[in-house]
């Protein structure tokens, strides 16, 4: 039950420990989302003061375990100056998502997070279905995700973990720190920290069974979660465990053309078309619907020459292709179509479009198990061991088919229909240009399998030294992640080229190249949709591309905090500690992708002279071999100094921290922060501000990327003014240095004033500047930056006059770019008991983020910084907000949720014009339509307690079935909901 409210002045006159706790309560920022966030209170024998966070009152023993994620200081009542949003377990449950990742990613300050709707078009990225967070639109690699304040082994070589592998049912709250926290937690906390806090003392049994489906009858979902906990040996031994299974069928690709999966009708093939004309008074770029390429068709199209415009149906019969736009083929070598845009017509025969085939959501199946055993060796001192073993399988379809424009077919090819062969003879040609969607070959599918094994051994508690209580947290962690990627139904490009070049020999159709024939080549008919089974097996063997990655993380950490000195305004609190971390990865791939020299051929991948020995033989999915490791040693110190404690002037304190880190690859770097809080004498108001120097170290991928080699036959050498043959090696860069960020936030909060109990408001302004941003450069940029003496670091990356071997350019990342972003967050919450005389209470909350600017400067010659704020092709709309209304009447509750983001642009660099346009330039190109709409989504949910501890619930997401913007210009699932209305229902129980 909630304690009664005490007189504030009386409490200020009470004993120092009580004053400290109450002061901390009055300084706590309201998390506008949180409803059941535990709040610190006074000992049970005294009446407790309700915290300015709405939620349940907990005991002093429980309060001592609460650590503010924005700081390493673990002292009751202390609150860091960095703004923190908290989601309690009831909010997570109320949102009724099969994956807690989705609930958190809805928060406005999270922009550009991944998940099952992102990267579905990808074949080679390795990030399909990867659930990882991005704060402030700075990317997943600049957000640190923790589990109980501890690091988690990465599920990708970029170092980001997969939240799908976390024990979700035992999560009692999630802290989202909206600001730099490198001084407290180390590398990657540039945008902030997302910290999952589990219930380590859970007792009893709780479970959740849920099912879901979309209004279109797809993405059927089944979720089962079970957790149990008990104590023994006089409450000294604590055992906690959980298991969960989740299967989401996903939403596959639609048909060739413009039909999306299961009747969705919002796809219009909206495209950004480059007219290729810069100064005719018209815009260079135009935005159009129903665009189709003139370079291929579903079952084949002759794209240039006198026979241009002849297409073929599934049976291989020729017909006149309908270009749209009243387009007339020029029937010359250029392949142009009069009346159409360069490369595209509008309307006509759209049957060969491949973009409708992208999965709208990856299918996912996850199994997660978690166990923890803790033993109190003494009061308030625990030794513990945790095990987290999980597996996540995902699969997606990148696009429909494997389109191949720009092919050349011989007129004498026996698969060419007689009418076309006769037309060739009449026109006096022996070959023609050809393009096909390859619809007859079927669709590629990518399968990922991530398996995590994580073990933590640690101890935490309190000890008294020289009259001071010290809190300690020591742990060692070992984590291993295995990621397997397998691609199915994908062609080998060189075998495809050999197979389509068919001829007749001794009355039989065979591959023209005798070497290819000797190595099993089977002729392939790509005119129409009737390839032979033998040809399909030859160009698309069952053993497709694969990648096998092993990634490990070892951590040893110690953190100590306490209040050794009682000063004039309160106790001085400090924290200090250190950490050692070792990161390692090794990846191996198939020889057809990685190269025969890197991977021994044989078995399912026999040597084939038709293939390139250097690899890159697949249509997509050419994975490479690689390995690398680095280690980190660091130490930190943090202090909180109260310097004001007055009824007239209020209470104020300074908080500062410093961390020194030594990276084995890049040396020593410092991070620091300095901030403060001022609890004003005006009831409920508090001011907070913090500035920090934050770092992000280069990850394993950036340091040790698996090499990729390509040949540049006519590369211009600016030093000698000649064209040279160059070998381009795409590699990692072990000389990279950490990115350095300056992060500043300042804000004011109003928390539960006496004149408006239950009201909480906050406003926080932020500004982040990141220098030495790690970014990749093209080969020409690397040479030009050296030649023009802009970045001499690139001079060591190439040799264009190599007497000891071939000329080379090592294409790699450098610390060159910069990012700066600015904006503000607004949070509000109000709890109204017995609204309009009704039983129960009504809670209204809202969170909003406004991005003023988000500017990236590549650092390259001839480029200008680009502001991505309001660019809805990206992840940073100008405004994004989330509002939640919850009515709780005891056995029954109702939730209404609104999600919205503002309209924006395709790109802020464009100049919009229709006629009389200025000359279009690379820096400021012209466009006729630079608008992308915002979107509003409405969700509702309800719960009903059938009996005590058994609750039925239901939820409808996107109740209005709001479609995304038409095609959303290449699709942008990072912002738009592409799924549609979703129904979920289930039952929760606890015993």
UniProtKB/TrEMBL annotation:
Localization in the cell: Cell outer membrane
Keyword Coiled coil tagged: no
UniProt EC number: 5.2.1.8
Annotated InterPro entries: Beta-barrel_TonB, Beta-barrel_TonB_sf, Plug_dom, Plug_dom_sf, PPIase_FKBP_dom, TonB-dep_rcpt-like, TonB_rcpt_CS
TonB C-terminal box (motif): residue ranges: 974-991
Topology class, membrane: Multi-pass membrane protein
Protein name: peptidylprolyl isomerase
Protein species of origin: Sphingomonas pokkalii
Lineage: Bacteria, Pseudomonadati, Pseudomonadota, Alphaproteobacteria, Sphingomonadales
């Amino acid at each position: 039950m909630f304690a009664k409210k005490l007189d504030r002045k009386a409490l200020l006159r009470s004993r120092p420990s009580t004053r400290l706790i109450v002061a901390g309560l009055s300084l706590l920022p309201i998390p506008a989302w949180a409803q059941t966030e535990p709040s610190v209170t006074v000992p049970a024998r005294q009446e407790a003061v309700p915290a300015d966070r709405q939620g349940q009152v907990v005991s002093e023993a429980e309060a001592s375990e609460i650590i503010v994620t924005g700081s390493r200081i673990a002292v009751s009542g202390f609150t860091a100056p960095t703004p923190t949003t908290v989601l309690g377990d009831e909010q997570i449950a109320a949102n009724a998502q099969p994956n807690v990742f989705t609930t958190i990613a809805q928060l406005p300050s999270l922009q550009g997070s991944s998940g099952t709707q992102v990267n579905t078009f990808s074949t080679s990225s390795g990030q399909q279905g990867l659930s990882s967070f991005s704060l402030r639109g700075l990317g997943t690699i600049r957000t640190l995700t923790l589990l109980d304040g501890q690091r988690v082994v990465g599920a990708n070589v970029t170092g980001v973990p997969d939240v799908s592998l976390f024990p979700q049912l035992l999560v009692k709250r999630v802290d989202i720190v909206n600001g730099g926290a490198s001084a407290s937690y180390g590398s990657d906390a540039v945008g902030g920290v997302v910290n999952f806090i589990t219930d380590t003392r859970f007792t009893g049994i709780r479970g959740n069974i849920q099912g879901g489906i979309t209004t279109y009858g797809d993405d059927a979902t089944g979720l089962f979660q079970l957790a149990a906990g008990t104590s023994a040996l006089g409450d000294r031994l604590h055992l906690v465990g959980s298991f969960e299974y989740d299967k989401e069928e996903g939403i596959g690709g639609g048909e060739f053309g413009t039909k999306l999966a299961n009747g969705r009708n919002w796809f219009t093939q909206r495209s950004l078309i480059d007219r290729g004309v810069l100064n005719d008074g018209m815009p260079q770029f135009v935005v159009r619907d129903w665009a189709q390429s003139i370079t291929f068709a579903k079952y084949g199209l002759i794209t240039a020459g006198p026979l241009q415009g002849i297409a073929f149906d599934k049976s291989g019969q020729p017909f006149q292709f309908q270009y749209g736009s009243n387009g007339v083929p020029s029937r010359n070598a250029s392949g142009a179509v009069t009346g159409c845009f360069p490369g595209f017509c509008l309307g006509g025969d759209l049957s060969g479009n491949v973009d409708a085939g992208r999965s709208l959501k990856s299918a996912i199946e996850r199994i997660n198990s978690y166990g923890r055993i803790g033993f109190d060796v003494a009061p308030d001192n625990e030794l513990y061991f945790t095990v987290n073993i999980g597996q996540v399988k995902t699969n997606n379809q990148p696009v429909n088919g494997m389109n191949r424009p720009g092919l050349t077919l011989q007129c004498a090819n026996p698969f060419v229909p007689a009418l076309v062969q006769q037309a060739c003879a009449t026109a006096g040609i022996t070959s023609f240009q050809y393009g096909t969607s390859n619809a007859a070959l079927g669709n590629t599918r990518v399968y990922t399998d991530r398996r995590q094994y994580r073990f933590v051994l640690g101890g935490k508690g309190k000890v008294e030294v020289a009259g001071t209580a010290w809190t300690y947290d020591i742990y060692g962690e070992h984590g291993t992640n295995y990621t397997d990627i397998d691609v199915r139904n994908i062609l080998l490009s060189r075998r495809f080229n050999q197979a389509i070049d068919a001829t007749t020999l001794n009355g039989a159709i065979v591959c023209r190249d005798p070497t290819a024939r000797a190595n099993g080549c089977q002729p392939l008919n790509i005119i129409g949709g009737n390839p032979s089974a033998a040809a399909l097996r030859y160009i698309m063997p069952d053993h497709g591309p694969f990648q096998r990655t092993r990634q490990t993380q070892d951590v040893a950490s110690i953190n100590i905090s306490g209040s050794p000195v009682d000063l004039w305004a309160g106790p001085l609190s400090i924290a200090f500690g250190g950490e050692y971390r070792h990161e390692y990865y090794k990846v191996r791939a198939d020889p057809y992708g990685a190269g025969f020299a890197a991977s021994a051929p044989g078995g399912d991948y026999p040597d084939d002279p038709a293939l390139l020995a250097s690899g890159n033989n697949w249509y997509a999915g050419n994975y490479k071999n690689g390995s690398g490791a680095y280690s980190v040693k660091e130490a930190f110190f943090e202090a909180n100094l109260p310097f004001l404690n007055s009824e007239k002037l209020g209470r104020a304190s300074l908080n500062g921290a410093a961390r020194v880190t030594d990276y084995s690859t890049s040396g020593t770097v410092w991070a620091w922060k300095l901030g403060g809080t001022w609890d004003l004498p005006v009831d409920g108001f508090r001011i907070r501000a913090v500035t920090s120097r934050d770092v992000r170290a280069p990850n394993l991928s950036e340091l040790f990327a698996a090499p990729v080699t390509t040949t540049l036959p006519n590369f211009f050498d600016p030093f000698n003014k000649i064209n040279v043959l160059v070998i381009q090696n795409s590699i990692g860069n072990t000389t990279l240095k950490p990115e350095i960020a300056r992060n500043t936030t300042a804000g004011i909060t109003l928390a539960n004033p006496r004149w408006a109990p239950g009201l909480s408001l906050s406003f926080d302004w932020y500004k982040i500047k990141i220098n030495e941003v790690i970014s990749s450069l093209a080969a020409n940029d690397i040479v030009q930056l050296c030649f023009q003496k802009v970045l001499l670091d690139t001079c060591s990356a190439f040799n264009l006059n190599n007497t000891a071997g071939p000329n080379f350019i090592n294409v790699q990342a450098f610390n060159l770019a910069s990012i700066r972003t600015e904006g503000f967050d607004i949070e509000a919450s109000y709890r109204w008991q017995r609204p309009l005389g009704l039983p129960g209470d009504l809670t209204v909350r809202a969170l909003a983020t406004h991005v003023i600017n988000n500017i990236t400067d590549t650092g390259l010659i001839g480029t200008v910084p680009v502001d991505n704020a309001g660019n809805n092709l990206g992840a940073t709309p100008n405004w994004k907000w989330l509002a939640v209304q919850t009515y709780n009447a005891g056995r029954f509750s109702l939730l209404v949720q609104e999600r919205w983001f503002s309209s924006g642009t395709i790109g802020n660099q464009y100049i919009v014009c229709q006629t009389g346009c200025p000359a279009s330039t690379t820096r400021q190109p012209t466009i006729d339509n630079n608008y992308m709409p915002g979107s509003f989504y409405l969700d509702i949910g309800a719960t009903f307690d059938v009996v005590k501890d058994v609750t039925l619930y239901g939820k409808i997401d996107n109740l209005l079935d709001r479609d995304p913007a038409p095609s959303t210009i290449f699709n942008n699932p990072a912002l738009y909901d592409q799924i549609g209305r979703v129904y979920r229902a289930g039952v929760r129980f606890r015993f």
